[in-house]
Amino acid sequence: MAPLLLLQFLFLIVLPCQISADQTAKAYIVRVDSSAKPSVFPTHYHWYTAQFTEPTTILHVYDTVFHGFSAVLTPSQAASVIQHPQSLPHLKTAAASCTPLVPHSSWVCAINTGCGVKFSIKNCNRKIIGARFFSKGHEAGASGFGGINETIEFKSPRDADGHGTHTASTAAGRHAFRASMEGYAPGIAKGVAPKARLAIYKVCWKNAGCFDSDILAAFDAAANDGVDIISISIGGSDGISSPYYLDPIAIGAYGAVSRGIFVSSSAGNEGPSGLSVTNLAPWLTTVGAGTIDRNFPAEVILGDGRKFSGVSLYAGEPLKGKMYPLIYPGKSGGLSASLCMENSLDPNSVRGKIVICDRGSSARTAKGLVVKKAGGVGMILANGVSNGEGLVGDAHLIPACAVGSSEGDEIKAYLASNSTASATINFQGTEIGVKPAPVVASFSGRGPNGLNPEILKPDLIAPGVNILAAWTEAVGPTGLDSDTRKTEFNILSGTSMACPHVSGAAALLKSAHPDWSPAAIRSAMMTTASLIDNSLNPMVDESSKKPATPYDYGAGHLNLDLAMDPGLVYDLTDNDYVNFLCAIEYGPKTIQVITRSQVSCPMRKPLLENLNYPSITAMFPTRLTGVSSKTFFRMVTNVGEADAVYHVRVEPPKGVKVSVKPGKLVFSETTRRLGYYVIYSGQQNLVLDDSGAVFGSISWVDGKHVVRSPIVVTQTDPL
């Protein structure tokens, strides 16, 4: 990839995207001040193509959430651009799908000209009312990034890997009365908003990821098409977030939110490590994952009679209690063998045995395939320390069971001490009524926010473990090329699965409250979120089995019934977000990359902590001497009964004094919005927990509603 550079010029911003391997031409995203178009050009497209002295290929023209275009430029063409504008660094790629929701049926089927492979206007119906695909950016960089493999992919809106089908049906699928995945999770299935309509915007390609220019084009098209909700289960795969002005999701989402479109995004799957949450922009609703009260238990039975609980979605021929020799390739075969990577196993050692494989570095089901190719009869998939005890089921091709880190260590210890060690695996089907649930999924992206820790992320969590939803016929349930099974449903886990739950909830909230802004919808979900599991105890962290914190679950777990009537909401406008960008010291030209329009920051720098967010984070200096205090301001809007009176209830973080002024909010027909101040006092001997923070809450109560905001208090060294 090209080196990153930042050059300031007049009105144009050039963002180099993924590039071709021969380095002769590169794909760029170019941000243009649309008001600067000379009147001689009838359209912006004519202006853009006339800007360069040599013919160029325009990939996408953006005119809704972003102003500008993407194009493949030669070095001389890029030099011509740089004579006018400003150049910004490379955008990173990501992988997944983008599925906007439309809660009304006011559209005709909006599709690309020609529709593409195995997709025509006949594929639209009363559920799917629009479908588009975006591949020009990908094709422009294909020579260096593998391109679109049309032997396994459809160059059309049709889904080739299942991810988009699964997330779309989770958000808005109609009732299916005989749903199951090869017998697992049988029953009636439906999406969160089954009467919502779907418009599909395909930007990601099987085994090839997603390109920034295509992501931006999809946002632009969705906003221009008039969607109400955008569900985007895409995030950085490395747990590292780019600055907002280099993030196509943050840029596209800002344009959507500014038009009243709610945008829900996944928090990423790099947990349980801290700072692993992605999609951090405060105009995004960032969703982590929790478990549900359904599980797919399996157990490993050792030759000495001990049993270890795990999970599995294996549906083939069972082992029927027969014991098989046990082997751990990592004992003598090195790291790749311990992970059961491709071509790492010796068939002479593995044949006819149950193989212990460590989790990580390759897909869980791919490890089972490696074992199968080497002649193994089964697999025990053992978590490492980083995954802890968090488990997800997989539709393995061979008898396989996933076990937690401690169970894996005990099984390995048994093998190490017994030269004739043996084991079998017993599969136990579907279990419902599991307690405790929800539990924060071990993989779910965790706070603190790596860009601006003053803004708590994730915002909340939703069901994201072992989720049954629709599946494509183009690929088997494992997604592996060799998996020839066909199934109408599949069971997957990830924050990609949690995100559409919130998207569907947002569609229902928007339908019930059409005048609510995206910020109001998010606030309603956050301030009513649940902190208690089905055993009436505080939610725990799956990886550690310890009580979870707002760094794990944000404001809590989605509770749609309560969100319908939240009482009060914390609203935000475009101006509030501009003040936020000013507060983090973005300059006007940089802010314009995100907002599209020219802005000017206030003479007095806004306070970042005063963004009217439904959560509050106070950051004190590490070298605190004596007593230090901070004051925050929040404004709430009454969306309940006009003459409501609310009183404050404070649960202060340990070692921190918290006071709220005023302590009572009195609303009326003419007074719908009221503000309050929160004053924090931190002591020199402030003791933080293992996450580096202490937590509490502020709640406004009126006898019917509890409007709760999490409090985070932490320490940091000033720059």
Automatic annotation (TrEMBL):
Please state the span of the N-terminal signal peptide per the UniProt entry.
1-21
Single GO MF descriptor: serine-type endopeptidase activity
| InterPro entries (UniProt xref) | PA_dom_sf (IPR046450), PA_domain (IPR003137), Peptidase_S8/S53_dom (IPR000209), Peptidase_S8/S53_dom_sf (IPR036852), Peptidase_S8_Ser-AS (IPR023828), Peptidase_S8_subtilisin-rel (IPR015500), Peptidases_S8_3 (IPR034197), S8pro/Inhibitor_I9 (IPR010259)
Name the domain of life this protein comes from.
Eukaryota
| Single Gene Ontology BP annotation | proteolysis
Q: Which residues form the Peptidase S8/S53 domain?
A: 149-556
Pfam families from the xrefs? fn3_6, Inhibitor_I9, PA, Peptidase_S8
Chain ranges of the Inhibitor I9 domain: 28-85
Pinpoint the PA domain residues: 324-411
Q: Does the keyword Lipid biosynthesis apply?
A: no
| Sorted UniProt keywords | Glycoprotein, Hydrolase, Protease, Serine protease, Signal
Subtilisin-like protease fibronectin type-III domain ranges (all copies):
610-713
- Indicate the family of this protein: Belongs to the peptidase S8 family.
Return the protein name. Subtilisin-like protease SBT1.6
Q: Which organism is it from?
A: Sesamum radiatum
